[in-house]
């Protein structure tokens, strides 16, 4: 599985993915626009992005270019992320996940777990 | 700060909020960058107004409640999160065109009334709240000047970061020694930015990126924005006037410096601080261009304050009439150049990458500055009793899921500490420090 990382604090997001997937997931650090073409070409499976609100800079370009139906904000600013919401988004077939910068450390493990479970690894 | 009640101030804020709510209702412009791409879902009929409204509310409520309120209570100046994120929501939930400006206007009147009330209450308290809040602004300018260095560390490597730090520090030392008339902070920022751009250009010329297909990503959807240009220019003019009459600060990088400038009795100090605020705001604006331009071009929805350069115009113009003309002109220019900016960004994806790093680094330095400033403020208010309260508010937020944004926690903690110290003082358990 390969995940494109964009938005703010990319290094933190990528490091968190590496850490919590135990190396099972590859990460590519890019920009939101770069990620759109990678997703369209099938070079990556998913996109993670962080910004202040979780729904702004993180995924706004993704929403505009791959469609609102495939994007979601997992952790909004000021919210504590919930496991069942993450699982719901993953099972709905969302492929681009936005989160607030503050929540990266808490959100990434839940997302990684849900995505690995879905792919049966 | 006490002159908030003039008829002019009320009129400007009410018209401004009414107008931005109208822009949001019509889908012409919204302030929240994340809301922009969702607007076409409504315009093209895939989403209903209530659903869009709930998204707008969800995206913004955390910002309004934390940075929106904190920056304004701490400075006495209105800010865009408080005003425009709310008018985004109000405009969207309004079922009819004419309801939006009414709701917006009511919000404008409410915020200014509440601010006046809060100021009156706070200035009469035994523990000097407002005076101590001035401390928050002190580290802001010097700290913001460090953002290019942090961006270099983030985008390149520690070696380049350390070299840049040494060069910038040398410039600071030499300037303070030999040319004390120049602002060391401003020159520091300039040197840092030159280094950042220099490294980026060198890196870009080494990497041959295949950027052909990225160009048509920005199939120019600027026609819709151009069609609305008159409305957008009016919005720019109103915002510039609000900045000019000293009731509004554009962002965290300028608002504390402006509050200090407007309180200063010495005209030279005051105008120096205003220039400093305008420069910081300008730099922040540059960092935000790629984000605002790309979201605007891909959606056809513009930003309420455009690329935010209208703020700088508002601070610097000699009077409200010039500010209005300047604000409108800046928006006109931005919109005319939008297509070109889009093409440029499509060709150089590295610029967008740099912009992400610049915004991350600006946030990092500002969070640091606001926490340091807030700690200085609480120590001034109540010595290390004040420190105890503020530090624990900070740590409690850290330990319970960071519900309050890092950018807001400092000022929020300082305000809460001020309230608690005053309560203690009323029941006789705390003696104000002179």
TrEMBL record, chain A:
It comes from the Bacteria. Pfam families: DUF2620. This is DUF2620 family protein.
TrEMBL record, chain B:
It comes from the Bacteria. It holds the Pfam family YhfT. The chain crosses the membrane at residues 6-31, 52-71, 106-130, 136-154, 186-202, 229-248, 288-314, 321-341, 368-396, 408-431. The keyword Phosphoprotein does not apply. Keywords: Membrane, Transmembrane, Transmembrane helix. InterPro entries: Uncharacterised_YhfT. This is YhfT family protein.
